[in-house]
Amino acid sequence: MTTRPSAFPGEKAADALNQLRQASPLVHCMTNDVVQSITANVLLALGASPAMVIDSREAAQFSAISSALLVNVGTLTDSRAQSMLAAIHAANNAGKPWVLDPVAVGALSWRSEFCQEIIRLRPAAIRGNASEIMALSGLAASGRGVDSADTSLAALPAAQSLALQIGAIVAVTGEIDYICYGENTCAVSGGDALMTKVVGTGCALSAVVAAFVSLPGDRLSNVAAACRVMSCAGEIASQEAKGPGSFQPAFLDALYSLDAKRLTAKNFRVGEL
Amino acid sequence: MTTRPSAFPGEKAADALNQLRQASPLVHCMTNDVVQSITANVLLALGASPAMVIDSREAAQFSAISSALLVNVGTLTDSRAQSMLAAIHAANNAGKPWVLDPVAVGALSWRSEFCQEIIRLRPAAIRGNASEIMALSGLAASGRGVDSADTSLAALPAAQSLALQIGAIVAVTGEIDYICYGENTCAVSGGDALMTKVVGTGCALSAVVAAFVSLPGDRLSNVAAACRVMSCAGEIASQEAKGPGSFQPAFLDALYSLDAKRLTAKNFRVGEL
Amino acid sequence: MTTRPSAFPGEKAADALNQLRQASPLVHCMTNDVVQSITANVLLALGASPAMVIDSREAAQFSAISSALLVNVGTLTDSRAQSMLAAIHAANNAGKPWVLDPVAVGALSWRSEFCQEIIRLRPAAIRGNASEIMALSGLAASGRGVDSADTSLAALPAAQSLALQIGAIVAVTGEIDYICYGENTCAVSGGDALMTKVVGTGCALSAVVAAFVSLPGDRLSNVAAACRVMSCAGEIASQEAKGPGSFQPAFLDALYSLDAKRLTAKNFRVGEL
User: Fold this and answer.
1) B54 touches chain C (CB under 8 A)
2) N or C, which end of chain C is more exposed by having fewer CB within 10 Å?
3) What are the two backbone dihedrals, phi and then psi, of residue B18, each rounded to the nearest 5 degrees?
4) Is B153 near chain A, with CB under 8 Å?
5) Residue B143: its pLDDT value, please?
6) Which residue of C has its CA nearest to A257?
7) Coil/strand/helix, residue B68
8) Is residue C268 part of a domain?
9) Interface pTM (ipTM) of the complex?
10) Is the pTM of the predicted complex or chain greater than 0.90?
């Protein structure tokens, strides 16, 4: 039996963000065709350095010199799967952490097999929506692709079970994000529904998780910080945005200027926990 | 001899948009490298659900569970052509409609052959510019790639002929959009020249056509509604925009908040018909 | 010994921009996965016409009818390398100029070999950051991917040597851009640090270089005009932007409305030369 989720304190998010900006980690993003640009722009806005390299020889070479590797299976192909495997092995050999975003796992067979294969290769963290995490853990889910038809709370047992099973941090994100590691779970609230109307906010979060996971210190706390930084920027942007179009520039601006004051302000939705 | 184009009424566009938002169709987009993000964001802003899946096995599996399939040949490769064929056959077997965007057909030989091959596989609709539709119908055209050097009116006979020939809806879009099916043609005006200065507005329209074509009811009317929703959002956005950069967020915001009032307002350019 | 850099006059940038808008060159962009959209939008905002074609047969066919070809190796794969070679040969046979953006050359082995191979195929121009240009010229560099750890001034000898070696224009860009051809070098200042926080501004500049290189007149001057047009738009956008998110739409708007008045205004940073 795992412990109850504890609310993640804003002070820790602020500390981790400061560390990130000083370290400016180089994040090797092997991600899907749709979100390349927003992923890079989110990392740049936060002060990290993104790079996308996909040839299998180069991906392996690059993972070894990067701070962290992101593997996102959204638009998986045979050749990309080979490159991802090469990059994962190179990252592992070089002692660099890698993060999995299991996009649409459960809804599609081939990528589900591929993800079942690679989660044995010691990812530092997995970030997915409720349906994806339930599918990956072997529990039933009701996703129909990139959307999740389940709430993150419904997937919490699956996330906790998966975290124990493979020894990785598992973040199941939604209206509330739950980040599980071993017997511990912490919860991050915030964000805004507009984030679901802009493609790539979830995928970009996985890249941010990779950036934070490369930092020294407690990894569970660092992954939770990644989630909180994104949800806090989402709250700020939603106050300025007239819709999903104006949300995106406001979101990147918010990430760029995010500070401890905003991250430690009382989060009005924390009562939902 | 086909009938004269009739102006498409805004009330029908508003009804179809309401239906779309309730149904939230899942649109499988096999589209080109350049417009992945704007295509997804346009569908999300309208209330549809986009997903991009490109491996041939997964594309076939996904087409069968999607509401509609979009095939856009903008950055065609051998492996994508194979995946598109697999997805088209799966969509047909599952009774799901598919839509073709014949980007740059006529200007480039291989894709022209490929599109001539797949238009025999019963697309529900084809959406292209004047040059593309003229080339696809076998009539001469003067495109030099993704641009059209002909007006949509010049391509109207080609669109009507193609529609009869293959039994699909054919939408030739430009300053005025003509949507042809059997003996009927309707016309949609509106939009703004700034739309031609933002990459992907035409490609995204094809994805929106796929979303609307999945709805119950009259398909000619649904495709015209797709065209009108986009041209109306273009008008709204152009009033706020200072250029093509600020046009894009304003356009997505306009799609998100588009309502019957705007769609049924007198369209000042309807006199051009 | 090459001559000292001379400051590039704004009047020449304004003249070249006028020419570009009248000619509306068709630029065949073979570029990386991350920057497809911003590259196309930058070219459209300036009045050029972008097109991305990647199949090897089509790429060769298209290069022959385009005004210029861009080759950017950011997300190189085997099949894209083959297509790029086919396109370069077709461009050369048709007498069309091509431009190389050697993304991350030096940091990654395979693309470095590929770029060493293709710079023998008579590019009209090469545009890169300091690390890339130093690596391409055979001098030591300290890049760690897409970032440059060197200043453009430190790379000036490498750029001048490379320009003489291969008989092409070499632009090494950074806080100050140096454009070298034969014994001549000119310098372009301006821009803003926010440009480094938006993915693709450098890659898009290379596409703009391709557009300008297709114009008649002095090529060194045309490439410098490309650099100045982008740095001037960057200055304008940075005055309106609250961060990298709002910078991007403002930048495209600035490119769209850029005029001689702005381009010939005194550039406050020219004193740095």
Assistant:
1) no
2) N
3) -60, -45
4) no
5) 55
6) C243
7) strand
8) no
9) 0.94
10) yes
